[in-house]
Amino acid sequence: MKLLAITSSPNGIAHTYMAAENLQKAADKLGITIKVETQGSIGVENQFTEEDIREADGIIIAADKTVDKSRFIGKRLLVTGVQEGIRQPEALINTMIRGEAPVYQGHSEEDVPAEKAAASGKPQNSFYRHLMSGVSYMIPFIVVGGLLIAIALSIGGEPTPGGLQIPEDSFWKTIEQLGAAAFTFMVPVLAGFIAFSIADRPGLAPGIIGGYIAANGSFYGSEAGAGFIGGIIAGFLAGYVALWIKNWKVPKVIHPIMPIIIIPVLASLIVGLAFIYLLGGPVAQVFVSLTNWLSGMQGTSSILLALILGAMISFDMGGPVNKVAFMFGSAMIAEGNYGIMGPIAVAICVPPIGLGLATFLFKRKFHETERESGKAAFTMGLFGITEGAIPFASQDPLRVIPSIMVGSMAGSVIAMLGGVGDRVAHGGPIVAVLGAIDNVFMFFVAVIVGAIVTALMIKLLKKDQIEQQLAVAGESIGTVSPASGTPVQTNDFNNPTEAAEASELPRANGISEQKQRPIRKLTDIISLDLIDTSLSASTRDGVIDEMISKLEAQEVLTSGAAFREAIMRREQESSTGIGMNVAVPHGKSDAVLSPRVAFGISREGVDWNSADGTPAKLIFMIAVPAENKGNEHLKILQMLSRKLMDDSFRDQLLHAETKQEVIGLLEQIQ
Question: Helix, strand or coil for residue 601?
Answer without folding.
Answer: strand
